[in-house]
Design goal:
Blueprint (H helix, E strand, L loop, with lengths): L1 H9 L3 E4 L9 H11 L4 E5 L4 H8 L4 E5 L5 H6 L2 E5 H11 L1
Helix pairs in contact: 2-3
C-alpha cells in the first residue's frame, strides 16, 4: 500500500485536499471539482462515508470514491490520480505508518 501511494506521489498523481464537501448530491458539482483539479480518471479517498460525495461520484464512470477502510492497492494502481483529504491521509498514516 505504501509503495503504491509513494509511486503516485513521485509521479505527481496524488492530490491532497483540505476537505471535500458538497452541498447536495449533484454529479455536475462533483465533475466541476474534478475539472478544477484537472483530474479525469481518479480514486477519491475519504476518511469516512460522505453520502453526498459518494452518490455524486457514483455516476462518473472514470472515478471511484471510497473510504480509507476500503482502500486497496488495486484501486490505487487502476486509477491515474489519487485524491485524498487531509483527514484521509491521517487515517492512512495511523494504519500504515
Amino acid at each position: 500500500m505504501k509503495s503504491a501511494l509513494t509511486d503516485r506521489l513521485n509521479d505527481q498523481k496524488l492530490i491532497v485536499l483540505d476537505e471535500l464537501k458538497l452541498d447536495e448530491i449533484k454529479t455536475k458539482a462533483f465533475v466541476n471539482v474534478l475539472n478544477n483539479l484537472k483530474v479525469e480518471k481518479a480514486l477519491v479517498v475519504l476518511p469516512e462515508i460522505d453520502e453526498k460525495v459518494m452518490a455524486s461520484a457514483k455516476n462518473v464512470k472514470s472515478v471511484k470514491a471510497t473510504q480509507t477502510g476500503a482502500l486497496s492497492v488495486y484501486d490505487i494502481l487502476k486509477y491515474n490520480t489519487v485524491v485524498l483529504t487531509k483527514d484521509a491521509v491521517k487515517k492512512i498514516e495511523e494504519v500504515y505508518a
